[in-house]
Write a structure and sequence with these properties.
Rossmann fold; Alpha/beta fold hydrolase; hydrolase; hydrolase activity; AB_hydrolase_fold; 2 domains; eight-stranded mixed β-sheet; Rna Polymerase Sigma Factor, Chain: A; AB_hydrolase_1
Length: about 325
Amino acid sequence: MATTFELGDFVLQGGATLRGAQLTYETYGELAADKSNAIVYPTWYSGRHQDNEWLIGEGMALDPSRYFIIVPNMLGNGLSSSPSNTPPPYDRGRFPNVTMYDNVEAQYRLVTEHFGIERLPLVLGWSMGAGQTYQWAVSHPEMVERIAPFCGSSRCSYHNKVFLEGVKAALTADDAFQNGWYTSMPTKGLRAAARVYAGWGFSQAFYWDRLYERLGFSSLEDFLVGFWEGFFLDDRDPNNLLTMLWTWQNADVGRTPGFNGDTKAALASIKARAIVMPAEKDLYFPPEDEAWAVQHIPNAELRVIPGVWGHFAGNGINAEDTTFIDTALKELLAT
């Protein structure tokens, strides 16, 4: 059962104050008496804590019998403070912009104030969770010992921003959206956003090989409706999606206070041992983007996840990719 940490009046990087802000989280395992076994594993774009459970289990790197795994829900995901659950005046279409830095500062308060943890053996995450992982290592280098960002980046590339403009346009074009003040769910916009996403989440080779059939879908259209439209219509609120989209689109560890927008300097400040795992055919975060980041991190290794599953190599739906990620995590934790 997820728990809520009260952040109180939480001042965002952009200057707005979320009054009565909340961070909802789940934990797995027990915190050691010396508080030395805590791992932070943030959520991703629209994901909730339970969506991270595929990488947690007995015999895996994230074994709850050994580690205390904290999965904080990202601001804007509908569980932590979001447009859909915040009272006026910052409700719905008026919800303020939230940065990666804001998310990590909320999580830092949870980890330090609530649990009294001073060191983290590992921070990891997929997609936007990877962005938060990088941010943790830059914001709190003295605290984070290891990081494993997979299928995600330290800053949003221009190509990625263009893709997100397509998602944004689809969500906001629905007449029912009403600039974020809708009274009924803008399902046309959600279905359109799903179709935009469908061309990016998996690789061209995934579709060529008709691997959607391995996921239980009988045709391409069945996959587009059953997987993608079903995903976006499953309790996803458009204002929440747009809040997280802004966070993603404006992600850049160089915007951390003290770095003046210098992404290279921010990456160079990371003290954690890092294994960075892009997917071979990820259309959002291609391996060359993360190769660029790795060359600026003092103690980092690039390890490309092979195969054709694209961005979803890091989502736990393909056993081979899950094994690849878990093996790397075991090696990282053993160092």
